[in-house]
Amino acid sequence: MSTELSPASQSLAHRDAAAQLQLTTLEGWRNFATGTPSSPRLLTTLQYRALTDTERILDDEDRIDHHARTLVIATSAIRHIVTCGRRQVLMNRNEYGARRGLLVSGPAGTGKSIAITQLGLSHELVDRARHPGVTDRIPVLYVTVPPAATARMIAAEFARFLGLPVRTRLNMTDIIEAVVGVLIDARCSLVLVDEVHNISLTTRNGAEVSDTLKYFSERIPATFVYAGIDLDKKGLLEGTRGAQIAGRFTLIPTAPFPRGTEWTQLVATLEETLLLRRHRSGTFRELDSWLHTHTNGMIGALSHAVRGAAIDAILTGSERITKAGIEAIPLDYAAESDRRRKRSPRKQS
Which residues contact residue 118 at a Cβ distance below 8 angstroms, ignoring those fewer than 6 apart? Predict the structure, then answer.
């Protein structure tokens, strides 16, 4: 009995396998850097009706998968961070002492993680272009700081990205030396550290994590980029250790989008990506002001609401997005709280 998968099943299996990859592993990062798959073709209503039931299911699944992927739009903030990061990498190229880094800080949902991963992607692609056919280079390393992290945990995150085993009997020095050795040999030149707000310099563990990152930055000839929520307001730049970070890192703030031309263009670009047969072009332009109020100008909340409404439109068969459809998508707690606060009438004094 043959167990060979059909082309459609193979495509779904490949997509499911890719979904299991994480950016915090070398395999996942390389998969991310190969580029997003092309968008499926939007069939007309007549073409869709002519499909078999199985073909319709697969078409719906392809379009749902398209809308489920986070769309990256080259906003001015992302372009600025990529430019600053590329510049800093070039300036650090011939440094033998302390290298300067970047600190990307702002409220949740303002695109920090997207920005630094786009910086990493840009750097990765440039490195590949400069060294075609070379497979043993690792120009970019991406890790996140776990909650309540210890120094060993952050060292283990570096090792996990590289696929290095972290056995119980290995001490910190063993792990660090293995990581540093691989990254030097692989010519790593950009290290991205996300969720840095999980480090508290007021605790012993937090201070040791900071020291470990500093030690990595001194041993690895790479530019370090930290990203996290309101890093400049949460003690990361205070005290002796904070002063060391402040003296070596350039702060790049992120913020909600103001109501203006770029917001309007962002909304229009999102609408252009929709693969819905009955959606009326220009709907988002009419909802432009309301969308800004609804999401508080947060690009993360806007992307989540639009993608969620698009998926609902396919699942329900409505094939279009309306104001009610967007309102039906729960936003993150911060955005919802802000919206409720704005709606509640002010109490009379």
Answer: 72, 74, 78, 81, 82
